[in-house]
Structures are given as structure tokens and as C-alpha cells.
Specification:
heterodimer, A: alpha/beta, two-stranded antiparallel sheet, 12 helices, 9 strands, B: alpha/beta, Rossmann fold, 5-stranded mixed sheet, 16 helices, about 20% strand, globular, binds thiamine diphosphate, binds magnesium ion
Chain lengths: ~270, ~350
């Protein structure tokens, strides 16, 4: 098991990668990438189990397609993609698409049409139950995705089928494309709704590594209820320059901004 | 030119000369412009409509900033409904508004209006005594840097399937303005593709007329026929220019209304040509190519239809210029494909002649 300091180091490396990915074209979903770096570092370097051959037993279903940058950064850390290739993020001819389709290494589902991922995670979890597999399924969705009806159909089925192996991670950054989630279409109180649908819940500051690790550890307890972690995140976390772009779904900026952001993270 | 002359002329005896129809198309050819663009024209025309009519209610599913709704929202906040990212709910709400006498204009990306909320659009907006209701669908075809998740490449096909649904694919900002106005006058549901951001102007707005169900001849030449819709028409014009550089004069028929389609105009032009090249910013299945084929086959014309558009595969991601070139949809590529096929047309037309010589 890695120390908190080691996880923080890995998260820093992921943040650096997110910024480098956007720097080429001067644009990208950097706010989401930075906000999710701590969660990604913990999931892929601690929480998700690997077999003897170091293949993942547990899995992450990334429902929020545009947050792919966070997953790319961790896949880069794991050597699945080179930094040179990641630097082509969003460019013509690059397979490092801003919102990739299922089948690209590391991506189990197509997430860009938001609100569909949790249903597929339910499918993975049902499959594990049928097969007698011990695998756990993590599914990352955004607060915006809580507005799609299908997400609630999936939540209802997760509770109904008592999928104890399923963990929902809500990237609760309180923003969406048109503004603050609370003003666009309020999704709170998230825990009370989920509990009414048969889920266990916990809210956590997902940019606090020890707190997030403790929360994820709680979800491991064998149970017949699916678990939801409401992950409060700060877009741009870890790079003050990017945090300064408040409530910006998509960042476009000149090279100076990216250079400053990189310096913030070092 | 000589290699193509076999494509023309011979068709007239097949289905009767439609010279009067062609004359009418020529008489009302719209005036074209080039090199002009407008920023967010949809925002302006929607605002104008909102000022003219107080029954207009605009709905957004968390994309108002991205679909040029800001001017309307700012001036008419009480007639702007933000539903959050919930497209199915949005079209349901639009249905309720339509049934209670409002003119709902529900705006999102084409993929979410059609794939995500197809059933809601069909049931809430197209059944019962629904009056006017407008769906405006942005990011048509390949006008997005993302791939399948955002490229609406089958929306026209899906919408054509819904009874009563009018389906529009405007080619430029002038036509988009006029199409919105026409949709607002129409008594029934309309699906209209939208172009956001910097939009080209290819039609001169002075005296521009848009009629639902009416196609327009944009270029009149004897050597061949290209039929286009939406941005496909500007690609067709690029190809027409390229062919002109090579000494050939092609007709371009613009079909902004996919449904109800202007069969008269298509049949009139088809009667003069053995091959119709269709160009669309959409899958070659179910959209313009299919609609044109339905028209010519139901009339028994032995005309070959050659579809150009997005093939039956998920298109690549990237800039529109990149994707166009990957899909052979640049003017040069389209002209090249036309030349290849037209070069081999002699044997094909021979075969066709035998079949339809009655
Ligand atoms: C089904 C669907 N509807 C609309 C969109 C367009 N869209 C892309 S991101 C986004 C904002 C959603 O909010 P959230 O997912 O919370 O975004 P973030 O906080 O990461 O900016 C929207 C509406 C989409 N991708 N999918
Ligand atoms: Mg959000």
C-alpha cells in the first residue's frame, strides 16, 4: 500500500500531464483533469486491485466522456500512452480524442453522450454476479449527469439488484455547461435521494487525499447495497492559474497560462 | 465535356419533358453572395422572433451558451426555460407547452434531440392536436471536433420517419433565418438543423424567399446534376466550381427541405440527367440520397443516384476541414469522384436505356 505522500506525488504527476496535454492546442478539459487527479491516483495506484499479472481486477467505467483527460493522465502514468502521444490530445489524426469512444485502451464505455455510463456499470456488476467474480465496478459520473433520467433509472436498478460491488463516484464540482448546477437544475440533496433508492452514501472532499482514501476504504465493506461517494471537487485544483478560471467547463488560454499552470503544480 | 454528354439529353423522353418546371426553377434562382460570414446568426433571428411573437418559449438543456440562445434568454427570461441536462424531459415539456397554445422552440445538439429523445420528440411533438413546435438541432453532421457522441449524422433519417415532421437543413445564415421564420408560421412540428458561431452567407438576404418544401436551383448547366442539402450544398458548389475549372458546367439543385421533399423540382432536373450526385452533411443512408432515390424510383426513372456524405462508419474526430478531407467531401474530392463515375457512365447509361426505353 502506498503512503499518502506517494499518492500526492502521483497526483502531481497526473496534473502535470493534464496541463501538458492541453498546452499543445491551448485548450481542453483541464479543470476536470486537475480536479480528478487525486481520485484517479488513488483508484489506479491503490484502490483498484490487480491480479498476479498486474491486470486490473476492478474496473472504472468513465461515464463523463469529457473528463477523459483525467483517465488519459493516469494511463500515461501507467505507460499505456507515451507523453508524446498524449500531447496530441484533441488534434486531427490523434487517437487521444477529447471524448473518446469505447474500445480505446483504458476506456470501457463511450461517455460523451452524457448520462449513459452508470447503466453500463450496472451491467458489468450484474455480469460479475452471474460469473461469481469478486471484481468491483467503480463508475464516475458528473453532477450534470444526475440530471439525465437514465442516471436515475440506473440508480434505481443498482439499489433494486442490491449490487454491493458497485461504487458510484459523483464528480460534484457544482458546475455544468451553462453555469452553476444549483441554478441550472439543482441536484441536491444527492445523498438523501440515493439513500431513498437503496444506496449507502458518503460525502467527501475529493481533493483531500487521506479523507478520500478513507472514504474509498469504507466502500469495500461487504454489503448488499451499492455505495455512492459524493466527491466534492474543485475544478482546476492544484494549479491556482487554472482554478482562477472559475466555473469554466472548457478552458482556452494562451501559452503563458499553461506555463504558469505547470509552474503552479511543480 | 464530351465524355459527359452521354449523361444528358437522353432522359427527356423517359418521363416527359419538364421544360416548364425547369424554366420555373431557373426563373426563381436565388441571388448568391460569397465571402460573407455572420457571428451567431441564430441568436439574432431567434431574438427577432421572440420580439415579434409573445407565444414563443425557448427551451435549453444546459447548452444555451453553446447554441446561441444568450440574446433571447437575456431579453425574455420569463419565456426561457432551462431544464438542465435532461433532453427527454425538455421535449416532453415542449409538448405540454405546444398543447397549451405556445410555440415551443427546443434547442440542443442534433444527436441529443434525435438519438436521446427520439421517442419524446415523436410522441410529445408529433401526435395529437399539436400545433407548431420547433426543434433546433446544432452540430449537424461533422460540424464538431468530437466523434460519434456529437456528430449528428443520422438525425435527418430519424426525423424523416416521424409522421407530419417537417425536416429542414439550411445551407447558410440567410436561409437559416428564413427557415426559422417559416417554421414558426408552420402549423405542426418542424425539425431544423442549426449552424452556430461564425456562419457563412451564400444567399443574398435581399428578397430571399424560403418556402417549406421548395428546392432551389443554384447553378444551371447541361453537363450533370448535383443535388445538395445543408452544408452539403456549399460542398456541392465547391465541386461545381472545380468542375467548371475543368470545363464542365454542372447544375446544382439545393434541397433544404428533406420532408416534404420537392419531388417536382427533383423530377424535372432528373429528367435531364442519367446520374444524380447527392451531397449531404449526413449519413448516405436515410437522408438526402435516400429521399432523392425515393422520388426517382417511385416515378420509375432509371436514374442512377450516387450518394456522397458520411459513409456507414463512425466518422473520424477533428476539425471540419480534416474530416471533410478524410471523407472525400472537399470540392476537389467530390469533383474527382464525379469525374470517375461520369467517365464510366457510357456503359451504365446504355444499360439504363435498355431498361427504361418505354
Ligand atoms: C446527453 C448530453 N447532453 C448534453 C451534452 C452537452 N454537454 C457536454 S458537457 C455538459 C455539461 C454537463 O455538466 P457536467 O457534466 O457536470 O460538466 P462539468 O462539470 O465537467 O463541466 C453538457 C450539457 C452532452 N455531452 N450529453
Ligand atoms: Mg459538473
Amino acid at each position: 500500500m502506498k503512503s499518502d505522500a506517494e499518492i500526492v506525488d502521483i497526483a502531481r504527476s497526473l496534473r502535470r500531464r493534464c496541463i501538458m496535454m492541453c498546452r499543445g492546442r491551448g485548450q481542453g478539459y483541464v479543470g476536470q483533469g486537475l480536479a480528478l487527479a487525486d481520485l484517479m491516483a488513488i483508484l489506479y495506484f491503490d484502490e483498484m486491485r490487480r491480479d498476479g499479472g498486474a491486470e486490473l481486477i476492478d474496473r472504472l467505467v468513465l461515464s463523463t466522456g469529457h473528463s477523459a483527460i483525467a483517465l488519459y493522465s493516469v494511463l500515461g502514468e501507467l505507460g499505456e500512452y507515451t507523453d508524446d502521444e498524449l500531447a496530441t490530445y484533441g488534434m486531427d489524426r490523434s487517437r487521444i480524442e477529447e471524448s473518446p469512444l469505447a474500445g480505446l485502451p483504458g476506456f470501457l464505455v463511450t461517455g460523451g453522450s452524457l448520462g449513459q455510463g452508470l447503466s453500463q456499470a450496472v451491467g458489468f456488476a450484474i455480469g460479475d454476479r452471474i460469473r461469481g467474480s469478486e471484481a468491483r465496478t467503480f463508475c464516475l459520473i458528473s453532477d450534470g449527469e444526475l440530471q439525465e433520467g437514465q442516471t436515475w433509472e440506473a440508480i434505481m436498478s443498482g439499489g433494486h439488484f442490491r449490487l454491493g460491488s458497485l461504487v458510484l463516484l459523483v464528480d460534484n464540482n457544482r458546475m455544468q455547461a451553462d453555469g452553476d448546477t444549483v441554478e441550472i437544475m439543482n441536484v441536491e440533496p444527492i445523498e438523501a435521494k440515493l439513500e431513498a433508492f437503496g444506496w449507502s452514501t458518503l460525502r467527501v472532499d475529493a481533493n483531500d487525499v487521506p479523507a478520500l482514501r478513507a472514504a474509498l476504504a469504507t466502500t469495500r465493506a461487504v454489503s448488499n447495497r451499492p455505495y455512492a461517494l459524493v466527491c466534492d471537487t474543485v475544478p482546476g485544483k492544484g494549479a491556482a492559474t487554472i482554478e482562477g478560471f472559475q466555473r469554466t467547463h472548457y478552458v482556452r488560454a494562451g501559452d503563458e497560462v499553461w506555463a504558469n499552470a505547470l509552474a503552479d503544480v511543480q | 465535356m464530351s465524355s459527359l454528354s452521354c449523361m444528358t439529353g437522353g432522359g427527356a423522353e423517359r418521363s416527359g419533358v419538364r421544360q416548364t418546371d425547369i424554366d420555373a426553377l431557373v426563373a426563381r434562382m436565388p441571388t448568391m453572395t460569397t465571402g460573407i460570414t455572420r457571428q451567431a446568426p441564430f441568436g439574432e433571428s431567434l431574438l427577432a422572433l421572440g420580439r415579434a411573437r409573445d407565444d414563443v418559449v425557448v427551451l435549453s438543456a444546459d447548452l444555451s451558451k453553446y447554441t446561441d440562445l444568450t440574446p433571447f434568454r437575456a431579453e425574455f427570461p420569463e419565456r426561457f426555460v432551462q431544464v438542465g441536462m435532461a433532453e427527454q424531459n425538455m421535449f416532453g415539456i415542449a409538448g405540454g407547452l405546444a398543447k397549451s397554445g405556445f410555440l415551443p422552440i427546443a434547442v440542443t445538439y442534433g444527436v441529443f434531440a434525435t438519438r436521446r429523445a427520439f421517442d419524446q420528440v415523436a410522441m410529445a411533438l408529433a401526435t395529437g392536436k399539436t400545433g407548431p413546435a420547433i426543434v433546433v438541432a446544432f452540430l449537424p453532421g461533422i460540424t464538431t471536433p468530437f466523434r460519434a457522441t456529437h456528430q449528428a449524422t443520422e438525425d435527418l433519417a430519424l426525423m424523416r420517419e416521424i409522421p407530419r415532421m417537417v425536416v429542414l437543413d439550411p445551407a447558410d445564415s440567410t436561409e437559416q433565418d428564413a427557415a426559422l421564420a417559416a417554421a414558426a408560421r408552420h402549423d405542426g412540428p418542424v425539425y431544423m438543423r442549426g449552424l452556430r458561431g461564425l456562419v457563412e452567407q451564400i444567399f443574398d438576404p435581399t428578397d430571399f424567399e424560403f418556402r417549406i418544401g421548395q428546392a432551389n436551383l443554384l447553378r444551371h448547366g447541361p453537363d450533370g446534376l448535383i443535388v445538395g442539402t445543408g452544408l452539403g450544398t456549399s460542398w456541392a458548389l465547391d465541386a461545381q466550381n472545380e468542375l467548371a475549372r475543368q470545363g464542365m458546367s454542372y447544375s446544382v439543385l439545393h434541397v433544404p427541405t428533406l420532408k416534404p421533399i420537392d419531388s417536382g423540382a427533383i423530377l424535372a432536373m432528373a429528367s435531364r440527367h442519367r446520374t444524380i450526385f447527392t451531397v449531404e452533411n449526413h449519413s448516405t443512408i436515410g437522408g438526402l440520397a435516400s429521399a432523392v432515390s425515393e422520388v426517382v424510383t417511385s416515378e420509375g426513372l432509371g436514374v442512377r443516384v450516387v450518394p456522397m456524405g458520411v459513409p456507414d462508419a463512425w466518422a473520424p474526430a477533428g476539425s471540419i476541414d480534416f474530416v471533410r478531407s478524410e471523407l472525400d467531401l472537399t470540392g476537389v474530392a467530390i469533383a474527382g469522384r464525379i469525374m470517375n463515375i461520369a467517365g464510366g457512365v457510357e456503359s451504365i447509361s446504355g444499360g439504363i436505356k435498355n431498361v427504361v426505353s418505354s
